[in-house]
Amino acid sequence: MQRYHRLNNLIGWLVFAMATVTYLLTLEPTASFWDCGEFIACSYKLLVPHPPGAPTFLLLGRIFSLFATDPTKVAVLVNTLSALSSSFTVLFLFWTITILAKKLVLGRPGMHDDRGLEPTPPQTLLILGSGVVGALALAFSDSFWFNAVEAEVYALSSLCTAVVVWLMLKWENRAHEADADKWLILIAYVMGLSIGVHLLNLLAIPALGLIYYFRRTDKATWTGAVITLVVCSIIVGLILVGIIPGLPSLAGSFEVFFVNSVGLPFNWGLILFLVLFFGLVVFGFRYSIRSNNRVLNTALLSFVFILIGYSSYLIIPIRSSFHPTINENDPEDVLSFVSYLKREQYGDRPLLYGPQFNAQPIDQKEGAPRYARQGNKYVVVEHKLETIYNDEDKMLLPRLYSNDPNHIQQYKKWVDIQEGTRPTMGQNLSFLFRYQMGHMYWRYFLWNFVGRESDVQQAGVLWPTGAGKNGLPERIADSAARNNFFAIPLIFGLLGLFFHIRRDGRNALIVGLLFLFTGLAIVIYLNQPPIEPRERDYTFAGATYAFAIWIGLGVLGLADLLRPVLKADGLRGGLAVALGLLAPALMAQQGWDDHDRSDRYNSVDSAKNLLNSLAPNAILFTNGDNDTFPLWYAQEVEGVRPDVRVAVLSYLNTDWYIDQMKRDSYLSQPLPIGMEKKDYVQGTNDYLPFVENPSVAEVNLREFMQLIRQNSPLLQVQTQSGHSLLSFPTRKFYLPIDTVAVQKLNIIPKDRRGQLVARMDWDMGRGAIEKKNLVILDMLATNNWQRPIYFSSTVNTQDFMNLQPYFQLEGLAYRILPARDPNYQPQGGDEGYVAKDLMYDNLMHKFAYRNLDRADIFYDENQLRFPANYRDKFARLAQTYADAGDLQRTKEIVDYCLKVMPDKAIPYDYYTPQLVEPLVKVGEKQQADNIMDTMTNRAQQALAYYSTSPTSGLFDLEVQLQLLTLQSVYRAAEKTGDRARATKALQLLQQYYPQ
C-alpha cells in the first residue's frame, strides 16, 4: 500500500507543479479589468469592496501583498493567490479522481474503507493516469484557466469546493473510526471560510450529504436518499438565509429594540444578543454531552466552526468604521452591515413566484425600514418600497420578468412574445431552456470541452465540423480565442459518466449532484436577464470541476472498451492513458495564446493615462467597473495621482457615497458639495421630476440649489401617494460667471480667452434630475472654478446634462470650463474643444501604451475598447493641428498613433477612419487609402457573415459597429474627395442598414 500511496502523492504534486508553472507563465502582471482592480486595492489596504464583500480573499490577498518589494508588484502577487488557488484545486481534484477511480479499478464500488488495498502496477497506472487526465483537463479548461490568472474570487472559491469534496471522501474512508467526525467539523470550517470568498461552495452540501447517508446507513434506499437531499437543501437555505444575513439581522433587531425602547447606549443591544446567542450554544453543548447525543454534538460543533470561518466578515464593519478611502455601502454598524450582506443596492429578481414583464403595478407598500443614527436613537430614514401586482400578472418560476424596454426587445429574440399580452408558461419555460440554460450555461459548458468560436461576446460553440474559416470575418477567423478541441474532452467526459453510472451508481449520483447544483441550479437561482455586459462563464467553475472528474474516469471507460482487443492489463492501461492525455494536451495547445496575459498592461495604463490627463487637485466623474476599478488600483496601490478625486456617478445616487466624497482622501480635499445630509439622505431628493412652470423661463443654478437646501415650497409637488417631493420648473438653467475672478485663476488657455462667457446657459433636456445630477449641479454652483471638474470621455452622454458646449478635451477626459466652444455642434459627435498643446503633451509624452504594438499578445474584446478611445483622441488632435495648418505636427501625431497601435496588434476600429483626412493632408494618401480599403473590406465581410448567420440577432452590437465603421469610412472619403470609396461605403450601408 505504501508504494501506491507514495506514487499517488508524487504524481499529484507533479500535476500541481505543472498547473502552477502554467498559471505563473500566463499570469497577468497587473490589475485586469472588471472587479480585479478593486479586489487588489482592497486586499492591499484591507478596504471595503462592493457587497457582499470577500473578506477571506482580502485577508489572504493582504498576506500575499506583504511580499511585494515595491507597489507595482502587489498586483502580480495578489494574482498569484488565484494562480496557486487554482493549482491546488487541480491537486485536490487529482486526489479526488484517484479515490473514485481506485474503487472502480479494484471492483469495490460504493462506500467503504479501501485504504488497505494495494493496486497492481497496471491498476496503479490506470488509476493515476485517470487522475492526471481529469486534473489537467480542468487545469486547461477555458473558464477555469481564465479565473486562474487574475485577482478574482472564483479561483479561491473553486479551491474551497475541491477541498470539501476531497475531505468528504477522506471521511468516507474513515467513517468507522472513533474520531471520524473531526473531518466533518473541518469541512464545516472550510465551508465557513468559503462564505468569505463566494457562496458557490455551499452548493456542494447536497452531494456531501449523500456521501454521509450512503456511508452511515447499512441499508440505504432511494427514499432515504431523497429525504437526505431535502434535508441538505434545507441546510443550504438555513446557511444562506438563517446564518449569513439572518444572525446579523436578528442582532440588528435586538440593537434597535434595546436602544430605542429600553434606552440603552448604541451597541448594547448587539452585546446582549451575543451574550444570549453564545449562552444558547453553550446550553446546547451541555445538553448534547449529558444526553450523550453524538449527532447533536457534531452538528453544534459544525455550526460553531462555520461561524468561526464566517467570522472573517468582521473585518468589514471593523475596517468600515475607520472610514477608509474605499468603503462601499459604509457598513460600519450592524444595521448597515445587514444591508451590505443582503446586497440590497442591487435590487431583487423574482425567483420562484413573481410578476411577468407586462405586469402593471397596482400599488406600492412600505417594506423594511432603513435606520440611521440620530442623537441617541435609531431613526427610520426611509422604507424600501415594494411594488404590488395583481395575482393574475404573476406566475411560477418567472423568467420573463423585466419591464426594461431593452430587455423586452431581447426577450423577443428568444421567445415569440407580444407587448401588452401576458406570456404563457410555455413561453416562460422556453426562455429558461433556450436562453438561460442553453445560451448562458450549456454554451459555456461546451466552450470548455468542445471548442469556442471566438472572443466576441455571444460567440457560439466551435464543433469539430466547423473548423474551416471560409467566409468568416477576420475578427472571428483570426481570434486567438478560436479554439477547437474536436469534442475530445466531451467524449471522454461522457464515456466516464456512463462508465461511472454502470459501475458505481451511488458515487456517480454524488458527482452528478455536484455537477447539477453548481451548474443548472445556479441558472435557476440567478434568473439572468436577456443580456449581460460580459460573458458569465466564470460563474459555473464548479460544474467544470465536476465534469473533469468524469473526464478522468473516461480513461477507465476507454480501457474497459479496449479489453476485448488488448488482453494485457499494462498495455491496455497505458494506451488508454496515452489517448486520454490527448484531451488536456489539445486544450493546452489551443488555449495557451488566448489565456496568456503575461505582457498585458492595457488596463492599468489606461487608468494612469486617464489620471494623468487631469489638472492638479481635479475631480473626475466616471462610470462603474472598467472605468473606475483600474483607477482605484492606480491610486491606492501604485500611488498615482492621489490629488485626484474619483467620483463614481452611479454611487453618487447614494447618501453614504456622498458622505465619503465630503471627506479628505489622501491629497484630495472634500468635494465642494453645498448640500447637507438632510438634503441627500436616502429617500430625499433621489430624483426631481420636471414639472413645468410657464412663469419660469429659466432658473439660476445657484438660486435653484439654495431652494433645494431650503426644501422650498416653490419646488414642491405632490405624488399620487400623497408624498411631496422637489421638482424643477424649467429645463433651462444658467450659471452667472465672475469673469474677472476666472481670469485671475488662469484656467482658460490663452487662445480661448475670447470664449469666456459671462454666464453658462444650457438645457437639461431630461424629464428628471437624479441625485447624482443634483450633486454635479451643486458642485458647479459651489466650486467657483477653484477645482478642475472633469468627465471621463467614456461616461454616458446622458450624464453630461447637455454641458458639452463648455467641455474642453485635454486627453481622455473633458474639463468643464466657463468658455463656450464656438464650433460645437450637437449632432456633430465631436465633443469638447481640443486644447491641442496640452493634449499633445499628454498623448505624445505622458501617456504609456505598453505592448499595444505587439501582435503576439492577445487583446480580447474588453481590452480592445480602450485603444479605440486612444485612436479617437489621436484623430481629434491630428485634425485640430491640420485645421490650424501645422502639418508637421499633424504627421507626427498620426505616425505615432499608427506606431504605438498598429493594425497587426490592435485591429483598426470605427474611430480609425478619422485619421484619413489628416493623412491625406500630410501627403500620406496611400496609407489613407489602405486604411479605408482594409476597413471597408472587413466590414463587408462581417456584414455578409452576420446577415446570413442563423444567430445574427445575437450580434446586434457587432453589426452596429460595422455600420458605424462604414459611416466613418464614408465621411472620411467624402472629406478627402474620394468619390469611389465613398460610393462603395454608401452602397454597403444602404445594402445592410435596413436589415
UniProtKB/TrEMBL annotation:
Keyword Transmembrane helix: yes
Transmembrane segments: 7-25, 53-69, 76-101, 121-141, 153-171, 183-214, 226-246, 266-283, 295-316, 485-501, 508-526, 538-562, 574-592
Keyword vocabulary terms for this entry: Membrane, Transmembrane, Transmembrane helix
UniProt keyword Transmembrane, yes or no: yes
InterPro entries: GT117_domain-containing, TMEM260-like
Pfam family name, one: TMEM260-like
PANTHER family according to UniProt: TRANSMEMBRANE PROTEIN 260
Name the record gives this protein: DUF2723 domain-containing protein
Protein source organism: Hymenobacter busanensis
Highest classification ranks of the organism: Bacteria, Pseudomonadati, Bacteroidota, Cytophagia, Cytophagales
